[in-house]
Write a structure and sequence with these properties.
This protein folds into six domains: about 1-60, Helix hairpin bin (Helix Hairpins, Orthogonal Bundle), CATH 1.10.287.610; about 85-315, DNA ligase/mRNA capping enzyme (D-amino Acid Aminotransferase, Chain A, domain 1), CATH 3.30.470.30; about 320-425, Beta Barrel (OB fold (Dihydrolipoamide Acetyltransferase, E2P)), CATH 2.40.50.140; about 430-500, DNA polymerase, domain 1 (Orthogonal Bundle); about 505-590, DNA polymerase, domain 1 (Orthogonal Bundle), CATH 1.10.150; about 600-685, BRCT domain (Rossmann fold, 3-Layer(aba) Sandwich). It is about 35% helix and about 20% strand. A hairpin with a 6-residue loop joins strand 15 and strand 16 (about 385-390). The longest helix has 21 residues, at about 5-25. The two termini are about 30 Å apart. It binds 2-(butylsulfanyl)adenosine (IVH). 2-(butylsulfanyl)adenosine binds near residues 111, 222 and 223.
Length: about 675
């Protein structure tokens, strides 16, 4: 084994262990900083020597692979569903049925019924090979690249694992991460996600695995499947899986319990019915399984589900209360959200005073009116919602709710774009919550991060008529600020210093800070990397924007529309004059070159490096990636097993072809050729 390979293996092993300690045992033994250094070391080695990079390397946790179409994959063992029950009588009937067949002592395993998306993981020789969604139970979609980013799922196993087995579980969106995601979306003026389950399901099927990596999904495993497994029961399967590195239900936290009687089953149900609101993730019931495999076999299956297991579904927590009034909130982007103000009521362990009604359609559909008695439910959603109205309790004199036609803050007539559920206030340049919201966004920690300036100060400056937009902030003087309430000399100096310092904030953050709809942190970075200056970005057309990797039509439209507004152009002109950064800095330019500028590459076939890395290398060096061969194609990067039709087309059009090695040589001479290998010189036609 070469020295490099040895080093890669050692780092991989170390990182896997640290990952396990952190995400499975929740007991890290090194700091995040030290972990990142080790990871970076591995990343550098893998980029330099891609021939030694493993598809299950810990570097895959950060994602990066793009999947356009998820292939359909047949399950080796069908993914059955569980028989549902909603009452304790049905659980008693289940137990009676089981005991009639078995007529011996029975051990049940009680577990949580995680509310997420089912996943089946295939491991071969201790490595994760495939992750497939449930689909129709017979076959599902392969989403491996996305699942690799879930840190609690081991990519390489340890201990005495079977050579070939499947393990199944549920992907869930932990509450804390879900909340964080929605807070970020709110800041960006994007609609918030309604509930963790649907968002987990959408996230698993995203094309860009690096976005999945950032969202922080988790996975709870609930069954091992395989031929000739060495253990004899479901419980032993899980305990063994724990030894191979999987995160399994915590018995000491009562996430799983071995029981022998129906009374103990009921106890488990009651315990979680009461305590489930304290869990950091959603469950929608509990599952009861006969433990021993031989007894499971005796009991057998119906067409759809096993006769040896059943789920008990909790009733959604629901209370009724009075709707006192409806108010309307205006967000930073002008989006209107109707809010139900309720008579306070206890629900799922918290006091509820407000509930969501989403939009005008929802109010209309449920015919919700002020003074109604309404049913409020806390389903998967974090914010409770009104699910129904008690029409019998409605007073005769009640009036149908008429959705507001004008902005509650600035009176401007609202608009509603075709196909969108939300109403908007279009008065962006005057409407107070929009103006304040935009400034609050601008000063945020991840944006301009202005010391000495917070939401309260923005409110104060706005009320005092000192600022209306972000450019006004840079006109503020000590003389204006000193007479204000709570503004001592020290805080004034602090604020002015903070503003001066913010002029050094790099362009990508400035772009994010502007608050262009759909231009978040990552998109801003991508745009800056590609266009390099604001002037170039401002003159880009929708088509040119779409050409950029990861920029879709929705973002492109939003960017073009933002810069087509005269007032935005004026705002930027003022910010430029104040000295803010509107060009990519030296630091960010490092690692890019214009070596391939003007060249269009088409990549076809399979390679040692991932396609995505080749793509990144082209873009980093100023080239473009085309999807199909045309007269415009400068080079075809030709991998193994390239389709004959592509080859024929390239020959017909006389497109130059290069091998992977030849391409690497092409970029070798430049400082950003991070991908250069020490591989043999090319056998390509060109070099
Ligand atoms: S066992 C053959 N255990 O519930 C039985 N399923 O209808 C296979 N689920 O979508 C399932 N928590 O993904 C089992 N502890 C648990 C579970 C669980 C959630 C989901 C599962 C499936 C549905 C079953």
């Amino acid at each position: 084994m070469s020295k490099v390979n040895e080093a890669i293996n050692k780092l991989t092993k170390e990182l896997n262990e640290h990952n396990y300690n952190y995400y499975v045992l929740s007991a890290p033994t090194i700091s995040d900083y030290d972990f990142d250094i080790l990871l970076k070391e591995l990343q550098v080695l893998e980029e330099k020597y891609p021939e030694f990079a493993d598809e299950n390397s810990p570097t895959k946790r950060v994602g990066g692979d793009i999947t356009k179409n998820f292939p359909s994959v047949q399950h080796r063992f069908p993914m059955l569903s569980l028989g549902n029950s909603y009452s304790k009588e049905e659980i008693i009937d289940f137990d009676t049925r089981v005991r009639k067949v078995i007529e011996r002592e029975i051990e049940y395993i009680c577990e949580l019924k995680y509310d997420g998306v089912a996943i089946s993981l295939t491991y071969e020789n201790g490595e994760l090979k495939k992750a497939v969604t449930r689909g129709d139970g017979a076959s599902g979609e392969e989403v491996t690249a996305n699942i690799r980013t879930i840190r609690s799922i081991p990519l390489m196993l340890k201990g005495d694992y079977p050579i070939d087995f499947d393990i199944r579980g549920e992907i869930v969106f932990p509450h804390a991460n879900f909340k964080k995601l929605n807070e970020e979306r709110k800041k960006l003026g994007e609609p918030e996600f309604a509930n963790p389950r649907n968002t987990a399901s959408g996230t698993v099927k995203m094309q860009d695995s690096s976005i999945v990596a950032k969202r922080g999904l988790d996975c709870f495993l609930y069954a091992v499947y395989g031929n000739n497994l060495s253990f004899k029961s479901h419980y032993q399967g899980l305990t063994n899986a724990g030894k191979w590195g999987f995160k399994i239900p915590d018995e000491s936290a009562n996430y799983i319990k071995r029981v022998k009687t129906i009374e103990q089953i009921m106890e488990f149900i009651d315990y979680w019915d009461e305590k489930r609101s304290e869990l950091p993730f959603d469950i929608d019931g509990i599952v009861i399984k006969v433990n021993a495999y031989d007894k499971q076999e005796e009991l057998g299956y119906t067409a759809k589900s096993p006769r040896w297991a059943i789920s008990y579904k909790f009733k959604a927590e629901r209370v009724f209360t009075k709707l006192n009034s409806i108010t309307y909130q205006v967000g930073r982007t002008g989006a209107i959200t109707p809010v139900a103000n309720l008579e306070s009521v206890q629900l799922g362990g918290t006091t509820v005073k407000r509930a969501s009604m989403h939009n005008a359609d929802q109010i209309e559909r449920l015919d919700i009116r002020v003074n109604d008695t309404v049913f409020v439910e806390k389903g998967g959603e974090i914010i409770p919602k009104i699910v129904a109205v008690d029409f019998a309790a409605r007073k005769k004199d009640s009036n149908k709710t008429i959705y507001i036609a004008n902005c509650p803050e600035c009176e401007t007539p609202l608009i509603r774009k075709e196909g969108e559920a939300q109403h908007y206030c279009p008065n962006e340049s005057v409407c107070p919550p929009q103006l304040k919201g935009k400034m609050e966004h601008f000063i945020g920690r991840k944006m301009m991060d202005i010391d000495g300036l917070g939401a309260e100060t923005i409110e104060q400056l706005f009320e005092e008529d000192l600022v209306k937009n972000v450019a006004d902030l840079y006109d503020l003087t000590s003389e204006q600020l000193l007479p204000l309430d709570r503004m001592a000399e020290k805080s004034v100096n602090n604020l002015i210093d903070g503003l001066i310092k913010s002029k050094e904030v790099p362009f990508a953050k400035v772009l994010f800070a502007l608050g262009i709809r759909y231009v978040g942190e990552t998109v801003a970075k991508t745009l800056v990397k590609h266009f390099k200056t604001l002037d170039l970005l401002m003159s880009a057309t929708v088509d040119e924007l779409i050409e950029v990797d990861e920029i879709g039509e929705r973002i492109a439209d939003s960017v073009v529309s933002y810069f087509s507004e005269q007032r935005n152009v004026e705002l930027i002109t003022r910010l430029k004059a104040k000295g803010l950064q509107f060009e990519i800095g030296e630091e960010e330019l490092k690692g890019t070159s214009s070596l391939l500028e003007g060249l269009i590459f088409v990549i076809s076939g399979t390679f040692n490096m991932s396609r995505n890395d080749i793509k990144k290398a082209i873009e980093k060096n100023g080239g473009k990636v085309g999807s199909s061969i045309s007269k415009k194609t400068s080079y075809l990067i030709r991998g193994e097993n390239m389709g004959p039709s592509k080859l024929k087309k390239a020959e017909e059009l006389d497109v130059s072809m290069v091998t992977e090695n030849a391409f690497l040589k092409m970029i070798e001479q430049n400082p950003s050729g991070d991908f250069v290998t020490d591989s043999k010189p090319t056998q390509g036609r060109l070099f």
